[in-house]
Structure formats: structure tokens, C-alpha cells
Amino acid sequence: MLQIFIRKFLEVTLFLLFITFVSFLFVRLAPGDPALTILNVDELSVSQEQVEALREDMGFNKPLLVQYGLWLFNFVQLDFGQSYVTGQPVIDMIATGLPATLELAAGAMLVMLVVSIPLGSLSALYRNSWIDHISRYASIVGAAIPSFWLGLIFINIFGAQLNWLPTMGRNGLVSLILPSLTLGLAISSVYVRLLRSSLLDSLGQEFIRAARARGLSEMRIFFVHALRHSLPPVITVFGVSLGSLIGGVVVIEVLFAYPGVGKMVVDAIRQRDYPLIQGYILVMAVIVFVVNTCVDIFYRYLNPEMKLKERNTQS
Questions:
Q1: 275 near 83, Cβ under 8 Å?
Q2: Residue 132 within any structural domain of the chain
Q3: Least trusted range by pLDDT, from 1-15, 142-156, 187-201
Q4: CA 9 from centroid of its chain's CA atoms
Q5: Quick one: pLDDT at residue 44?
Q6: Which structural domain range is residue 9 located in?
Q7: Backbone CA torsion sign across 27, 30, 35, 40
Q8: Could you give phi then psi for residue 5, rounded to 5 degrees?
Q9: What is the 3-state secondary structure (H, E, C) of the chain?
Q10: pTM of the model
Q11: Is 206 within the bounds of a domain?
Q12: Domain count along the chain
């Protein structure tokens, strides 16, 4: 147990060091002068002495490794710095916008589950039927349509034409419907096809034939045996594609003017707000790491074959 804890601790430490260094390097090497951006002026309207004084004050004139070391020292103390634009602590700004982003991600995942599990299951149960054909064609079309284009269609139909749903801002659950539908439908096509393929593979296994031979009902065979055996590949892909989901959240937040950290970081990139960009990357990286760790644990629970292999290895 102690060895597993030490290994996980080393993995987290190396992961955070790599992510923070790469993000710090990429942000600092971006073209343009951050001092002029912070001053919100051009080169002709400010003296060189003022620009150099700001660079000195912000530490921009130090070597990159020194800047990274100072930032890392503050990060270890849970100090993400202050926004260059607003002057507020970065951790407070992220904490303000993160609940809205998590709400949107949770809503998209709910839509994905509601769409992909029934369609994938029906497509596998009624293979080569009209249900299967419609499900496969719909998943292909869903994978081909960009999420921002689908969002524009929803805005035009349900917002501008019918005036049924709000298209901007965050005002209760009703304002979450269109963004969640847009992102959830965009990612569900992958899981419909994956669940169908995994279910077809499971339904052809020996343990399914053995369950039918024991006289178990088809409903029990499907939900207790086949569906559970089919979920590990789907869960694994979800852990891998979580980064794409976070990227999709950023696009949808900008499209629907949803006040989450995604829209916040897009504004920060435009304004070269280094501390906020780095804080966002770090928080999202930690969330991805935690979710993938939970996926690994859940995968072990759902996959009895892995448990058996681990027991054989230990014995």
C-alpha cells in the first residue's frame, strides 16, 4: 500500500512539474510585449522608461528559468499570483468561474449518457435493423458537425426564431439547456458507436451463452452481464477524451457567453494575462489527472479479468 502511495505521489509531482513548465514556456514565448498589453497602450504613447520599469517590476527581464522558479515557489505555497488585468487573485477568479464550467460539463455528460446508452444499446440489440441504421447514420452526422456550428443552429432556431430558450449568460438551469445539448450531442456520436461495438463483442462471448443456458432472462443478461462487460472500453475512452471535452467547453462558453473559466481564459489569452492562463492550465490538468485516476479505479472494479490477473501476479 505504501509503495502504491509513493508511486502515485511521484506521478503527480512529475506530472505537475511537466505541465507547469511546458505551459509557462509556451505562454512566455508567445509573440508580443506583455508589458504593453498590461499598460493597454501602444509603443508610441508610452516612454521606453515606463515599459522597462514595468518589466522590472513584473520580472519579465529575468531569464525564463528564473521566472519559472519564482512562479513555482509561489505555487507550492498555493499562490497563483494576481491577474495583470483585474488585479484580483487568480485562485479567486478561477474559483468564481469553475462552478459554471463544471455545471456545463456535467450537463453535457448527462446529455451524452441519455443519448449514447439507449442508441448504442438498441443498435446492438437490433443489429442491421432500421434502428441500427438510423443510429449509425445519426452518429456519423453528429461526428461530422462541428459543435460551434450546431450551437449556432440551436441559437437561431430555439433562441431567435422560436424564442423558447435563452442563448446567453447563466440564469438558472434553463440557460444551461442549449449549451449542454450542443456539447453533449457533439460528443455522444463517438460513444454510440463505441458502445454498440463493445456490446456486440460482449453478446458473442461464452459467458452470455452460458447465462442463457442457465435460463436467465434476456433483460438480466443484458444489463447485469453484457452491459457491464461492455462499459470498461467506453470508460477508458472517456478518460482519454476528457481533454477534448474541456476544449469543447471553452468553445461553447464563448459561443453562448457562458461565464465559466473557459471564456475567462480566452479573454486572458487575448490580454496576455499570464497568471490567469497558467492557473487555468494547472487547474484543468489536475482535474484531468484526478478524473483519469478515478477512471482507472472504476475500470478495475468493472473488469474482473484485471482483478484476477493482479491476484495471480501477487500470488
A1: yes
A2: yes
A3: 1-15
A4: 23
A5: 47
A6: 2-76
A7: negative
A8: -65, -45
A9: CHHHHHHHHHHHHHHHHHHHHHHHHHHHCCCCCHHHHHHCCCHHHCCHHHHHHHHHHHCCCCCHHHHHHHHHHHHHCCCCCECCCCCCEHHHHHHHHHHHHHHHHHHHHHHHHHHHHHHHHHHHHCCCCHHHHHHHHHHHHHHHCCHHHHHHHHHHHHHHHCCCCCCCCCCCHHHHHHHHHHHHHHHHHHHHHHHHHHHHHHHCCHHHHHHHHCCCCHHHHHHHHHHHHHHHHHHHHHHHCHHHHHHHHHHHHHHCCCCCHHHHHHHHHHHCCHHHHHHHHHHHHHHHHHHHHHHHHHHHHHCHHHHHHHHHHHC
A10: 0.73
A11: yes
A12: 2
**154 with 29, same domain?**
no
- Mean pLDDT within 17-40: 70
* pLDDT at residue 213, as a whole number: 77
| Whether residues 199 and 251 fall in one domain | yes
End residue of a domain, out of 76, 106, 125? 76
Query: Do 108 and 38 belong together in one domain?
Result: no
| Residue 219 binned pLDDT confidence (cut-offs 50, 70, 90) | confident
What is the arithmetic mean of pLDDT over 95-117?
84
Largest CA distance in the chain: 86
Query: How many residues appear in the chain?
Result: 315
Average pLDDT over residues 199-219: 74
Q: What percent of the chain has pLDDT over 90?
A: 0
Q: At 221, which CATH number? A: 1.10.3720.10
Please tell me the predicted confidence (pLDDT) of residue 260: 81
